[in-house]
Write the structure tokens for this entry.
Amino acid sequence: MKEARRLAMLIDDVLDRSFLTMKKEKTPTETFIEYVEQITDEEIKQNIINSYIHNQEATVATLERVAKQKGLYEKVITHYEDDNRTLDRKNVKLEREILERDKSQVDYNPSQKLKPLKISKAIEKHLEWEKGRNLDYKTMGKKVASLKYMLQILGDKHVHEVDTDDAEKVVLTIKKLPRHMQSTFKTDNILEGIRLNEKAQKPTIKPKTIGDGYITFMGYFFKEMKRKRATSYNPFETLTSKIKDGASTYREPYTIEQLNTLFSDKLFDEEWGIHQWMLVLGTLTGARTNELLQLRYADIVMKHGKPHFFIIKRDTDSDKSLKTANSRRFIPFHKLLLDLGFLDYVNRKKELGHDRIFHEEETPTNEELNFSNNYSKTIIRILRKILGKEDDYGPIVYYRLRHTFIEMMRESGTDPHHQYYYVGHKSDHIGAEYGRKGDISAFMTNAFDGINFHQIEALTKHIKKASARP
């Protein structure tokens, strides 16, 4: 349609200039042919030339009549429009005004109409669908909060009415969101929470939380609404990366020097228990805190002749939770982990009659079933006592060991798709959609020993001590 309009306007311009030039220069045939050659549509051009040849004496009158009747416009535009509507340039401006006034009647395809759906109703249906995906409590909680905050900020307008200005308004408001708003101010209303937070002069949430959490989930919501034809575009599509600018250092991996400082601490001269092994496993497996704390003895299995952690939530596991479906995976025991005597530790604990390896951490009684809620505070205190509260790359937290694991895989040349598998992430590569999922090949098992953890010299020094442990 756009091309048809452009062509029609070009024809009109050619005709107008032809008339003026012919009257001025009095060379109608040469001038007419020169200008008519600018028309790219061969059929239209030939029709005009034929008309001129057949009745040269009446050319000017014929062309004026054609221009007035818009006959050429009708033919061109009818060819490009599905509903055979006829438009001239006078109608274009009016049509645009109509479309702006009623955005619900336009989509990428003119024959399709958008569904008039209020944000509140759309959120209700969207969350109903999301809950059926069995997401972990933390992810689900952020999804619910992000959409609830968006509704509070924008009001209950139609989904298709939300534009980029609205999206930017949401982002600017979310940036002022207090940390731990509900526990600190006892409110779940974002505008009220921001007002109280500014009055109390307390810190706001981090940019990474905004980008990776709230704004990303709002983008997912509008992507789904676009698929359901409740809107024609996603106003949050380009905002997430901008929000995360400057926040990428929040979870940087630890350096080898920091790891050597950590594993040289006097903590590791004591008998190794839950804290020592959690720090070692965080480094050598990259597993999340909750995944390690909920491990049972039955979750250590043999694959391809070597022991593996099986990160899984079986139907009978009423006290387990997984972050995503991709979290289900096998993680091989690295040779260093075996040399440090982890299996001996497991067998000793098993003889005591406990079901879980790290039974010291009590099973959570909340519906989230997340072991890390309380333990994270304990392990962070231990880490900060050894490494300090923060470094040049951000706060000292346990989760950075997971990023350390990923970085050491990269440095060791581990296949990128295997990296995704080991940490329980989904690979964006098309090949990830094929083959057996959730299992591990013999090649991957054997290649795991190629990760160069032995460069952490302070950790390898504990190998000899391991054989002396009771």
